[in-house]
Design brief:
By secondary structure, this protein is an alpha/beta fold. Helix content is 31%, strand content 22%.
Length: 336
C-alpha cells in the first residue's frame, strides 16, 4: 500500500527527504533528457524588471503597468489568468501573495485592454478556499473590482499530456479555466522553502493541480518528487509572465512556518527561470545550487546572470542574505 506524502515526510529526516527528492533529477542527468529538446527554445537574453515597492500602500496597478511597458508585453484582446499563491492564513505572516498586488495587477491588465482577467488558485494546504479568500481579504478586493475567481481545486478538468517526464508521469488532469487562458501569469510570494530551497514563480504552479482529483496536499506531486513536479508543470503549462510579490517575503522554514522579512520589490519577467534565478540571488542563494532551477536553466529559460538583462532597479539595491534551513545553507552564494 502506498503511503501518503505526509507519512513519507514523517518517516524521513529532512536531509534524507531532500536526497530522495533529487533522485529523479540526478537520474535524468545520467540518461537521455526526459523531454524533446526540439519543443523548447531558450531566448538569447531574458529581461527581468525589478520595481520598488516599499510597502503595500503603493499603486500596484501603475507599478505593474510600468512593468508591462518595460517588458514590452502586449496583452490587448487576451484572456488573462492570474495565479496567486494562497496557502494558509495566519495574521501577521507573509504566507500569501498580498491581495493588493493581485488586484492591482488585474486592474493593470484591464487598463492594458486585456479581453478578460480571471484570478484562480487551488490551495494545497487548507481545503476551505472560501475561508482563505475571506480571511486574507482577497474576496473583498475582488468583489470591489468585480474580478472573477475560480477555485482550481474544484474546476472542471481535462487530461493533458506532459511536455516533460521528470516525474515519470505522462499526463495530468488540469483545470479547464487555466487551459483556456491566452496569457497565464504566475503571481507568487517570494519565500524560502524547506524542501526546494526557494518557492517563487515556478513552484507556484503546484496550486493548479486539482485537489478534488489528486488530494491534499497535492499528494501526486510530493510522491513523484517536488522538484521533478515543478519542472513537468512548467514545461507543460508554459506560463507567459510572472509578477513576484517581494514587498514582504518569508525567510527561514518556509513556505508556511518562516518569518516575514521586508525586501521592498516587485519582480516581473516573461522568463520564469530568469526571474526565479534573480530572486534567488537577491536573497543570497546560488540558483545553480538549487537542483530544479539548475535543470530548468537547461531547457526552460535563462538562469545564467550573463544572459539576464536587468531592467528597473539593480539587484544590488535589494541584495540580502535570507535565513534558510540547514539543508540549504550550502546553497548560498559564494562570498568574495
Amino acid at each position: 500500500m502506498r503511503r501518503s506524502s505526509s507519512d513519507l515526510a514523517s518517516g524521513l529526516t529532512r536531509r534524507a527527504f531532500l536526497a530522495a527528492a533529487a533522485v529523479p533529477l540526478v537520474a535524468a542527468a545520467c540518461r537521455r533528457a526526459p523531454y524533446d529538446p526540439r519543443a523548447f527554445r531558450i531566448p538569447d537574453r531574458s529581461a527581468v524588471t525589478l520595481l520598488p515597492a516599499d510597502s503595500y500602500d503603493v499603486d500596484f496597478a501603475a507599478l505593474v503597468g510600468r512593468g508591462l511597458s518595460d517588458l514590452r508585453l502586449d496583452v490587448r484582446g487576451r484572456r488573462v489568468f492570474l495565479k496567486p499563491n494562497i496557502v494558509e492564513y495566519e495574521a501577521g505572516t507573509a504566507i500569501n501573495t498580498d491581495p493588493r498586488v493581485v488586484v492591482g495587477a488585474a486592474v493593470a491588465f484591464r487598463r492594458a485592454c486585456a479581453a478578460s482577467v480571471t484570478v484562480g488558485e487551488g490551495p494545497g494546504h487548507r481545503r476551505d478556499t472560501e475561508y482563505l479568500l475571506t480571511s486574507t481579504g482577497l474576496y473583498d478586493h475582488l468583489r470591489d473590482e468585480r474580478i472573477r475567481f475560480v477555485d482550481l481545486n474544484q474546476d472542471d478538468v481535462r487530461e493533458v499530456p506532459l511536455a516533460s517526464w521528470f516525474t515519470g508521469l505522462r499526463s495530468l488532469a488540469l483545470p479547464v479555466e487555466l487551459l483556456s487562458a491566452d496569457l497565464i501569469v504566475s503571481m507568487p510570494k517570494l519565500k524560502t522553502h524547506h524542501w526546494a530551497g526557494l518557492t517563487a514563480s515556478m513552484k507556484n504552479f503546484f496550486g493548479v493541480v486539482p485537489g478534488a482529483v489528486y488530494g491534499w496536499p497535492k499528494n501526486i506531486l510530493h510522491v513523484h518528487g517536488i522538484e521533478a513536479s515543478i519542472l513537468d508543470l512548467n514545461a507543460t503549462i508554459r506560463p507567459h509572465l510572472s509578477i513576484l510579490d517581494g514587498v514582504t517575503a518569508m525567510e527561514g522554514d518556509g513556505p508556511i512556518m518562516g518569518r516575514a522579512r521586508h525586501v521592498g520589490l516587485i519582480g516581473m519577467s516573461t522568463d520564469l527561470v530568469a526571474l526565479d534565478a534573480t530572486a534567488a540571488r537577491v536573497i543570497g542563494l546560488d540558483p545553480a545550487r538549487l537542483p530544479y532551477l539548475a535543470e530548468a536553466g537547461r531547457f526552460l529559460g535563462n538562469m545564467d546572470s550573463g544572459r539576464i538583462e536587468q531592467r528597473g532597479e539593480s539587484t544590488s539595491r535589494y541584495a540580502c542574505t535570507f535565513d534558510v534551513v540547514d539543508a540549504f545553507k550550502g546553497s548560498r552564494l559564494s562570498q568574495g
